[in-house]
Amino acid sequence: MIRRYLFPFLLVLLAFAVGCSNYSQMSKDLEEYRPPVYTVPKAAEGEARARPSDESGFALEKRKISEAKALWEKALKAPRRAETFFHPPSHLLKSLKPAVTDPGVAAAALDPRFSLETLETLAFLRNPGIKAGENRTRAAIDTYSQVLALDDILRKYTAFTEGLMTGVGPLKGKEPMKTKFPFPGILSLKGEIVGQEIKAVMEDLEIARREAITEVRKAYWELLFVRKAEKIAKETIGLFRHLEQVATIRYETGGTSYQDVIKVRIQREILEEDLDTLLEKQRNVETKILEILNLPPETKIGLPENREPLRMVPPLGALYKLAYERRQELRRMRARVGKMERLIEMAETMIIPPYTLNLSLYEDEAINQVGSVATKEGFSVSTRASTGSGLPIMPWYGIEDAYLRQTQQELNALRRELEKEEAGTITLVRNAWFRLDLAKREESLYRNTILKLSRAALDVSTQGYQAGNLSFADVISSYTSWLDVNLAAAREMSALGIARAQLENVVGAPLHQERKEVPK
What pTM does this model have? Predict the structure, then answer.
């Protein structure tokens, strides 16, 4: 009787053992599965062959994030010339490098004379706003470490708490499938989000550099004008002294009244007071330069090298395209749009229900499946009553979906703001170009025509007054006109340099032209 039932029992036991062994092998094959070569895209085929065959999705994404972090650090230390608003000359950057920490080196470079390139390089190295932007950029780059931190913690926790299946070969822990998906894809999106944030912060840094360089250029041209105005005022005071002597001689000989002597003296006193005002204005401009360079107020600033601004006005059509591509505010907004797009993509991956009910996901944990102590089934066998049959096991999905729709509307609003900023850039470029064109025409008018005529009128009136053929009122008018025209010519020359600096600031890129220096 026992032999009658022994053979069927052994047959069932053998089938069960074979089934268990096949299931273990199937699970192992699933864990170690790698797609065939022909499924790898051609662009990534070389990369797939270069990396080890056992490199998992996590390891690949972590390696990509580490490489991206290294590239951003390199871009911060040595930015590409084509992407920067200002790149200092290599010889000045090398010689003035100690000025980053030593104010004495910067002070020595400004005395007794300094060039515009020297001033720009010192601003590039010492400006506090630029330093703050660099610190924020480094902080943003360090965000990559936070991207990896949570996933590493989860994976380490799983590795230390999961059960190990002993078998042939080394012990290998089997991680739960639901901790593997969608974490590698989410990790990749996190890296892209951080990359977009770093792009925006890098544009903030470039804006800080652009503003500092523009301000120091404007201060240079303003200081150059004040210095020229002081020189013109001193020369004109000398002319008034000479005219006062002539008026005194004519008064003593009875050729004119004492009123002429008094009028000349009044004009001279007014001009001497204006000279004192120019000296105080010079100190104000010098204080602005010290602020930009972060130097103490007692630092002495020498004479700026005499130079002429560029008189070539670039074509307006090319400036529109250049500003659209290079203006930092536009690039920063594009980076923010890219960041929000990836945030929404990550939220959709984590919020929107998948195509499966996840009834067949399992974890490598000890489960008592049979007997009187059975606590949990190996697989899900039913859905929750609160969700109903065939619905996702996400009761709060509606609330999260509302948040997703809100974020999508915020993205649409950000895109509209980008369009508004792009349209406003056209107006900014047009106005800046108009100021440059106007400054060029007015500077040319004073330099080529009005200045020469005013000088000729001054010489004729002086000779006529000495000969007694011209009234004193006409002489005073000629001297005053000469002073005003001289000052206006100097002002228009500096205004031309300032207008060009403002145009480059609006465009966000240098307008490459060689600068011409004038004799000292």
Answer: 0.73
